[in-house]
Specification:
The structure holds 3 protein chains of 3 kinds.
Chain A (H helix, E strand, L loop, with lengths): L1 H17 L5 H12 L4 H26 L8 H12 L3 H35 L3 H13 L9 H16 L1 E2 L6 E2 L13 H18 L20 H23 L4 H16 L12 H16 L1 H7 L5 H12 L8 H4 L1 H32 L4 H20 L2 H19 L5 H23 L6 H4 L1 H26 L11
Antiparallel strand pairs in A: 1-2
Helix pairs in contact in A: 1-3, 1-15, 2-3, 2-13, 3-4, 3-5, 3-11, 3-13, 3-15, 4-5, 4-11, 5-9, 5-11, 5-12, 5-15, 6-18, 6-20, 7-18, 8-16, 8-17, 9-10, 9-11, 10-11, 16-17
Chain B lengths: L7 H27 L6 E5 L6 H17 L3 E5 L6 H8 L7 E6 L1 H8 L11 E10 L1 E6 L6 H10 L5 E4 L5 H13 L4 E4 L3 H9 L5 E5 H10 L2 E6 L26 E8 L4 H16 L1 H9 L3 E6 H22 L3
Helix pairs in contact in B: 2-9, 4-11, 6-11
Chain C lengths: L1 H25 L2 E2 L2 E2 L3 H26 L12 H24 L1 H15 L5 H22 L12
Antiparallel strand pairs in C: 1-2
Helix pairs in contact in C: 1-2, 3-4, 4-5
Classes of the chains: A mainly alpha, B alpha/beta, C mainly alpha.
């Protein structure tokens, strides 16, 4: 029975993950009433399955259509979609599925072994640590662009600005809301993302006649990853799993930071960084793995401390409470069946998802064979429904449209969208944490360096910022000193 | 094309049939107007699915739907701290088929802190108060022994101790300032994005206390990682019987809990409002509903429509007074 | 190329400027703690400064003869297509709450299939009906997402 429930969960999760905008939260909330009839263990198994499944499914639309199904899947678009255009959608989906499987299994294992310990480490992340962590993320934002760095920075700055629109949570003042009630919540990450990536991509593709062109190389070269792909992906998958998991444990860290870090790391240590953005397998393997590891990691604060670190976990917590169970430090002691049942189901769920997604790859690749002239209205339709379903409001659809047009012109003028999105996500987190920290320290900035964890991340960030300059200086003075240095 | 097909007799018969149908239609509409509700009702929930307000709304709403005899459609319209949904309900058709959730958020703190909100309390008629959400002051285990210890240290070091809320200008923020005011303390306010983040900060020792709900803190309270210093209800709570109330600690003015309930537009005619109120009253009396509410950390506390109106008004006054005094505007 | 960079950088500078100005109204610093205006002011200034840099770089490139003439709209059809899509999307948003999801979607599909890359009528109608029906089934019935209902109640 548990197995059946698990399967239903992952199936629905994959389905909703594939449909852009309709994320796991919506699906979970819709199925919440059904869980009343199930036992508590079964409810959590099903809901967790939905969450996992959505993670797997979200990457599908990112790769096939450049529409990020969830926030965390955005990075996958950067190299996944170019791969699809080159006829390599199969390998992209395959590596993504395997990487997610490895990450999922790993994070469940770690949850079992190190859960409580990690949770306590996560608690030591206060506002100053959040500042340095998000600052680190912001310094890596420029790695997302494959073009002019100056323009990427401009887009990051714009993302910061967009993130400021709305109610300032620290002081309660409205910023840039022009008196519009809707704007108090800001513009919304998902509509902006769907516009800049999904809609804009369609607009660019259809601007020239579709007739004679092959949008996606239809003669798919291979359906599954090649040996070379596996070799290339081994490293990214390993690094992505580790990075993603630990970032997922930190409350508020989450999938986006994990996938960003993974992408940046892979690009930084790659022997051919300039190929990132054109369809490298490392650019898909790393981030996809990282965000699944992050998903697994985010269960830890909930199951060991009773703290939900994102919206999905909050829904899970609500479901548990309805069944009379409040997750927290006593969960393992009081309800061992539940705990182990859930952990077990995560293993099984990962296997099921792999088994479910692999055969589907053939199906998805066939989808790309639909003539683009028939496909693109479908893409629009799904994006409209997806953005509407976020808040049952046409406002989000409108935001998506506007950013779609903006994104179209941005592509034409060579301004990248990825840094914008990343800054949009990290900016508010950084700003809130910064002000909280300075409120705690009464305006004394040394708080960022006096605490060990925070100091580590800050130093790392500053190093990353400064190192290209150092490299340049060294190059100027001793031209032959550095072999194979990378020009930014 | 008038030809001999349509002669006078046919016209008369046609005319009679038409007027018959018309009068049937008029009667039907009149009858419909008498029987309320005549179609499905819409319950606009002001927060996203999965949250406590959403669960409360669906629990109570489903039962009420049975008493009303029509399906209840739940529509989540989150945004603006609950203002979007409230605005929608206030401006809905006055036929009584649109109701919504409202409480300390959209008809409380939002109106109390001088925000530019396009509605006022007068635009709504209360249907029922459903629940009280008590608040509790928590601290990390070992930090303070009890509430007195906390107050003592706060008075010794004004502006040094910190308290966390679930957002600037939120109920927890205002309650925190209320406690500051009545106890004569100057505990610094640090806002967080939600109760979970505030609780994390307390557990990690980054802030001294937090103003939170029972729902978010119960598991840690039971495990002993957090201790409750005081609760803001009239009487001690069953979930945490060891935690004294603010009244017992000597500050009866700091008895304030968050609240949630149902309202509709004030343009709805009184007779229809009555029908809705009695359906919700029956629903609230249902033991299943009461159990469900308790499980999500809320206390079922039914108040009939007009009483909810005055409750909302008096609480709004209190919120206004505290926030003005604390400078939260 | 130069013209494009000029327009681009001016546009982004134009976006950054109002944010900067607005930010000043929110305050920058108070007792060592940043006020709501600090980050927007900072970010807006970056946009302006970098915009100037892009401008200067492109002027330099133009002088150095490194320009290329790339049209903004590669084909004559391109701008028409853009406007058609924007029109379709806007019309959808404007009418869906009156006409309801199924009808609006149907019209939307027909419009796009006819006016962007014209298909045969049979294909247009068949595809429109099929997608409208299946999306309605999938989203409204199966997933129970709350799609807009029109005046007619569907």
């Amino acid at each position: 029975m548990n197995l059946l429930v698990c399967f239903i969960g992952v199936f629905i999760g994959t389905l909703t993950g594939v449909l852009p905008g309709i994320g796991s939260t919506a699906a979970m909330s819709l199925l919440l009433p059904i869980t009343f009839t199930l036992s508590s263990t079964q409810s959590i198994i099903m809901l967790a399955g939905i969450y996992y499944g959505a993670m797997y499914g979200g990457s599908t639309t990112s790769i096939l259509l450049n529409v990020p199904g969830e926030g965390t899947s955005m990075i996958t678009c950067l190299d996944g979609y170019p791969m699809a255009k080159k006829g390599r959608a199969g390998p992209a989906l395959g590596i993504s599925a395997f990487g997610s499987f490895i990450a999922g299994t790993f994070s469940v294992a770690m949850l079992m072994i190190l859960g409580p310990l990690l949770a306590n480490i996560a608690l030591s992340f206060g506002p100053p640590e959040n500042v340095s962590l998000t600052f680190l993320g912001l310094t890596m934002v420029t790695y997302l662009g494959s073009g002019s760095m100056v323009k990427s920075l401009m887009m990051a700055a714009f993302g910061l600005l967009l993130g400021c629109i709305g109610l300032d949570i620290v002081k309660g003042t409205e910023r840039y809301t022009l008196g519009i009630l809707r704007l108090r919540d800001g513009l919304g990450l998902i509509p902006i993302m769907m516009g800049l990536f999904g809609i804009a991509e369609v607009l660019i593709t259809i601007e020239t006649s579709l007739e004679k062109r092959e949008i996606f190389k239809t003669r798919a070269k291979e359906l599954f990853p090649t040996k070379q792909d596996w070799k290339d992906s081994a490293g990214p998958i390993t690094r992505g799993t580790l990075a993603g998991f630990f970032l997922g444990v930190i409350p508020g860290g989450g999938g986006m930071l994990a996938s960003l870090m993974s992408y940046a790391i892979e690009k930084r240590i790659s022997k051919h960084p300039e190929k990132f953005g054109t369809g490298t397998i490392e650019g898909v393997a790393g981030p996809e793995t990282a965000n699944n590891a992050g998903a697994g990691g985010s269960f830890i604060p909930l199951l060991t401390l009773g703290i939900p670190c994102n919206v999905v976990m909050a829904v899970l917590m609500g479901a548990l409470m309805i069944h009379g169970i409040s997750p927290g430090p006593l969960l393992l002691k009081e309800h061992p069946n539940l705990f182990w049942g859930v952990v077990g189901s995560m293993y099984v769920g990962n296997v099921m998802l792999l088994a479910l997604n692999l055969p589907l790859i053939g199906l998805w690749v066939k989808v790309l064979r639909i003539p683009y002239s028939l496909l693109f209205p479908l893409i629009f339709l799904f994006c409209i429904i997806g953005s509407y379903s976020l808040n049952n409001s046409l406002w989000d659809v409108g935001v998506m449209t506007i950013f779609g047009v903006l994104g179209y012109f941005m592509k034409k003028f060579r301004y990248e969208a990825a840094p914008l999105i990343m800054a949009l996500v990290l900016g508010p987190m950084f700003e809130v944490a910064l002000r909280q920290s300075l409120m705690l320290s009464n305006g004394n900035p040394s708080i960022f360096f006096s605490r060990p964890i925070s100091a580590t991340f800050m130093t790392l960030s500053l190093f990353i910022l400064v190192s290209p300059l150092c490299l340049k200086m060294v190059k100027k003075r001793r031209p032959g000193l550095l072999k194979g240095d990378k020009e930014f | 094309m008038v030809n001999n097909f349509f002669n006078r007799r046919h016209l008369v018969v046609l005319g009679v049939m038409l007027s018959f149908t018309l009068s049937l239609g008029v009667c039907h509409t009149l009858l419909l107007a008498q029987s309320f509700p005549s179609k499905e009702m819409e319950l606009i929930i002001n927060f996203s699915p999965g949250g406590s307000t959403d669960m409360m709304a669906r629990m109570v709403g489903n039962k009420a739907s049975k008493h009303l005899g029509v399906p209840m459609v739940f529509i989540n319209k989150p945004g603006g701290g609950g203002a979007i949904a409230a605005n929608f309900v206030a401006n809905a058709k006055p036929d009584g088929h649109t109701i919504g959730t409202a409480g300390a958020s959209n008809l409380g703190t939002l109106l109390a802190t001088g925000e530019k909100i396009p509605y006022t309390l007068k635009d709504f008629s209360g249907i029922a108060r459903a629940a009280i959400v008590p608040m509790i002051i928590v601290a990390k285990k070992g930090r303070f022994d009890n509430f007195e210890g906390f107050v003592k240290e706060a008075k010794q070091k004004p502006g040094v101790l910190t308290f966390g809320s679930w957002g600037s200008k939120s109920t927890s923020h205002i309650v925190g300032e209320l406690i500051n005011q009545v106890a004569g303390m100057k505990v610094k306010h640090i806002p967080f994005e939600g109760g979970a983040k505030a609780m994390t900060a307390v557990l990690g020792g980054h802030i001294d206390v937090a103003v939170a709900t029972i729902g978010t803190t119960q598991s840690n309270l039971r495990a002993g990682t957090l201790i409750g210093l005081a609760v803001t209800t009239q009487a001690r709570l069953d979930d945490v019987p060891d935690v004294p109330t603010m009244k017992e600690s000597g500050y009866p003015e700091a008895t304030f809990s968050s609240y949630d309930g149902f309202v509709t537009s004030s343009t709805v005619p009184k007779d229809r409002l009555e029908i809705i109120i009695s359906a919700f009253e029956k629903s609230m009396k249902d033991p299943e509903v009461q159990e469900g509410l308790k499980k999500t950390g809320m206390i079922p506390a039914f108040l009939r429509g007009p009483e909810y109106d005055s409750f909302l008004a008096s609480n709004l006054e209190l919120l206004r007074a505290v926030s003005t005094k604390a400078g939260i505007q | 190329m130069k013209y494009r960079e000029l327009v681009g950088s001016l546009f982004w500078m134009g976006v950054g400027a109002p944010f900067c100005i607005g930010a000043l109204g929110y305050g920058l610093f108070r007792e060592g703690v940043p006020e709501p205006g600090l980050l927007p002011f900072f970010a807006g200034s970056i946009m302006i400064v970098l915009g100037v840099s892009v401008l200067i770089t492109s002027v330099k490139e133009e002088r150095g003869g490194k320009t290329s003439r790339e049209k903004i709209f590669p084909e004559r059809e391109s701008s028409k297509r853009l406007f058609t899509v924007v029109f379709a999307l806007s019309a959808y948003i404007a009418s869906v709450e009156y006409l309801g999801f199924p009808l609006t979607t149907f019209l939307f599909m027909i419009f796009l299939l006819r006016f962007i890359e014209p298909q045969r009528w049979f294909v247009i109608v068949a595809a429109s009906i099929l997608t409208t029906a299946s999306s309605y089934l999938l989203f409204q019935i199966f997933l129970k997402t709350q799609l807009p209902k029109g005046i007619l109640g569907i």
